[in-house]
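Let us work through a complete example step by step.
Step 1: write down the sequence.
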Amino acid sequence: MKRLARLAALLLLLLPAYLGMAAGWAMAVFGDLAAGLPPMRAALLTPRQTAILLAVEDPDFYRHAGISLAAGQGFATLTSAVTRDFYQDGARLGGAGGVFQSAYAHIQHCCKAIDLGRDAMTLVLDAKMSKDRQLDYYVAHVYMGTQAGVQVRGLALAALLYAGKPLAALDEREFIRLAAMIKAPNAYHPLRHPAPLAARAARIEALLAGRCTAAGLSDTLLRACEQTKESP
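Step 2: predict the structure and record it as tokens.
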């Protein structure tokens, strides 16, 4: 017991240093990574599609500083998803920046559920990247499952593969189904698991119509909007 207590105390002492290192690294390499971004695209989503996406994935997006505890949010924001992809899946860095980038990839692999380093990095990214740029990045990079053994990245490609239409041509119900996938893209895959996807889409429609609200922070599955339980 004493050894565990000493270990816990040591971790608590090291945590501020680790968070400071993560934030400092995120700030130092932001410019190098941002230099590799393509120009901002014309709006990929209509205003209504944007409203639907944010209602489902990050209802407090334009008000929070990267971290949010909004109802139905869980512990991940749209900004934190961008942070993960921007710092880990973007350009490969060299030098000291690359060493930390590689080390952090291992931390994410083993401990992403409890790691606070990404929260520190998310605060930095939100301060340095505009909300519109974050949304543009997210829409272009969000993971949307696999099809024929290949990862599907971005809502535009997902619309073509799963709905057979360009993103802008989706009607509201079709876009809701696309947004419904994001929580667990393979569990809610429209070709392999249409019934769970339809159930989640119905919950989202109820949420958007104002017939229900998420039951607290952790209700990311919108259990408060369901009639029949689903298991993603």
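Step 3: interpret the result. Strands lie at 143-147, 150-153.
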